[in-house]
Amino acid sequence: MNQVTKSLVVITGASSGIGAAMAKSFSAAGHPLLLLARRVEAMQALELPNSLSISVDVTDTAAIKTAITQAEAQFGPVGCLINNAGVMLLGQIDVQDPNEWSRMLNINVMGVLNGIHAVLADMKARKTGTIINISSVAGRKTFPNHAAYCATKFAVHALTENIREEVAIDDVRLITIAPGAVETELLSHTTCDDIKAGYHDWKEEMGGVIAPENVAAAALFAWQQPQNVCVREIVLAPTRQQP
């Protein structure tokens, strides 16, 4: 294990897409990592130095805290938490399975709150720390077939800003990153084939979508600002994405 001098970064949903890109980006910047997701093999396959990969469901508060305690014993206190884990289950509310709403609310909202709860008290006590919550353009405006998903992402925007105001005096930063269309596995979670086909057509009309690495670069930029500078929100999307 190499000598670690930079602070620990915790990333949820780190097994693929934006989370995996975040892991590579922050690792390249020299940070030790705690990678959390259900698929531990995929995280281990990234083969990043000074990293610990643990299979965790973000709806399990105790499991998150246990994993963080284990990582802090090895790498020191958490400097940055990136709440990235999420699911996107699109559908018309009158026909969509309500279980899909519960799953999104539990992962996209409760998962974010669980992560914050696990690190915030210590950050306030140390008078330093950064929490980056990955939301969506769908947390700023609505889209067809997105009602429940938009509800979860509007919640992420609201809770992030609310907590930011509460802990600003403690020199703790909260940052919202709201990507538009990104090339990830999110759409695969949707069960309606017609909606998935329409989404693919929309991506083609735009001439493609942004890469997860673009989102990771935005997060790293915000994190690398001095602690007395809080980039409160970053919205990024394909140039040709209109809404």
Could you walk me through the main structural features you see in this protein, from its secondary elements to its overall organization?
- The protein has 243 residues and is of the alpha/beta class.
- It contains seven helices and seven strands.
- Strands 3-2-1-4-5-6-7 form a seven-stranded parallel beta sheet, sandwiched between helices.
- Helix 1 (17-28) links the parallel strand 1 (8-12) and strand 2.
- The relative contact order is 0.15.
- The model has no long low-confidence stretch (mean pLDDT 94).
- Belongs to the short-chain dehydrogenases/reductases (SDR) family.
- It is an enzyme of class 1 (oxidoreductase).
The end-to-end distance, rounded to whole angstroms, is: 46 Å
Widest sheet: strand ordering: 3-2-1-4-5-6-7
Rg from C-alpha positions?
17 Å
Helix content: 40-55%
SSE-based structural type: alpha/beta
Mean pLDDT: 94
- Strand % is 15-25%
SS field, number of helical segments: 7
| Element order: H for helix, E for strand | EHEHEHEHEHEHHE
Oligomer: single chain
Largest sheet: 7 strands, parallel
Shape: globular
Strand tally is 7
Low-confidence stretches: none
